[in-house]
Write the structure tokens for this entry.
Amino acid sequence: MKKNNLQEGDLFKLPMVKDYFVIGLIVRIKGMLMYAVFFDGKDESILEITGFDPLNEKIILRRICSALGLKNGDWKILGKTTKWNKKDWPIPLFRRKDLISGNYSLIKYNDELKEISETVAKANEKLDHYPEDGVAGYGLIEKQLAKLLS
């Protein structure tokens, strides 16, 4: 699959173990970098959803990641969501931990997936609901999903 064939709103399938799979949704894509959300594939209703909610409790992972799994064919495109609207899917803030100080920051990205701001979080601020910052390779995504689903 050529990278220019990938589009926002595309659904894709990640095989996990045996007949089990995860469904991904491309929310933003720039070259081989994408912001995607992932759903538990055992809920077959995911394939029939006509309008997605970015706060949907069925989302099990939100990450900026490589599209290499799609390019090399390990992840399969299923088609476009029927009611895709980019405005309904703003890019969230991401949490980043400074490995030296242990402090957290909230990172904002633009639609081209470029970092545009960083705000240091307050000392006792709860950040668990923010997705983890950093670009994940497709192998890491598969490992994170396997851990979340085990």
User: Anything to note?
Assistant: Residues 3-90+134-149 form one domain. The mean pLDDT is 86. Helices lie at 68-71, 138-149. The first strand starts at residue 10 and ends at 15.
